[in-house]
User: Fold this.
Amino acid sequence: MKVTTTEWENGQLDPENLLLAQLNLKIKGYVVIENVFGEAQLEELKSRFHELLSDYIAQTDPNRGASRYGMPLPFEAPFASTTLVANPLLLQVIKSILGDDVVCSFFASDTALSGSQYQQAHSDVEPLFPSDNISLPPFCYVVNIPLVDFRPDNGPTEIWPFGTHLVGDPAVIPVPDFTRIEELRNSPVGKFTEEEMLPQQVITPAGSVVIRDIRMWHRGTPNRSNEPRPMMAMVYNRPWYNHGVVEIDENEFQELPAEVKQVFRKAVLR
Ligand SMILES: O=C(O)CCC(=O)C(=O)O
Assistant:
């Protein structure tokens, strides 16, 4: 969906667009909001990101499948800007479903390098009540920010927006185990996701924001270009749920604007 200039200036979606975002999230399990970040901010993010990624690759083996890296991000400039981590529009949408007391519990990135292959379809989380097999209301959203355009050739994320986020059956939900990708792709659920219920590619320009229910089935796809395909990954959840830990320098935390402190109030200060 596109945001109007007035909505940007007000830092609020108008009621109709807010409802549209909510319908997408609740029913399809995701929404894409375009043009959230501009060229100048993206250049700054990309330049620091590539420095960090080179260092990380030098010290770490691929950890999300071959030629694929999940890399934590430091909570500092340019990543920790208020427009990014407590963006009023994004928070308006997320809080309208998860409540005003949301917490950000994960601050990282996913990069598909040239030569990366398909992951298996997976939910990022196990069901909360595995023995009850029930469909629960939303409790956690992933916010992905593509730092380059997502094109068919450079490994865009694929999603299964057909209510997969509402499946509560642990026997069916595909797990995020990247040491057994081919085995899981060849399992009955893997075959179902690739042969019976075809996924959709998320094709969207750099600077868009993809908000997705953390339970929605998705996967990384092959990057056939010569450039890395990086995206930031943040997780916002209801306060009783945690997806990870965000670490923030204590002095830096004290300087943060109130709205950022509020969302990162559960961060570990060091
Ligand atoms: O990088 C992507 O497009 C998706 C990656 C992913 O889903 C994962 O590593 O869990």
Remarks:
- The mean pLDDT is 97.
- The two ends are 39 Å apart (CA to CA).
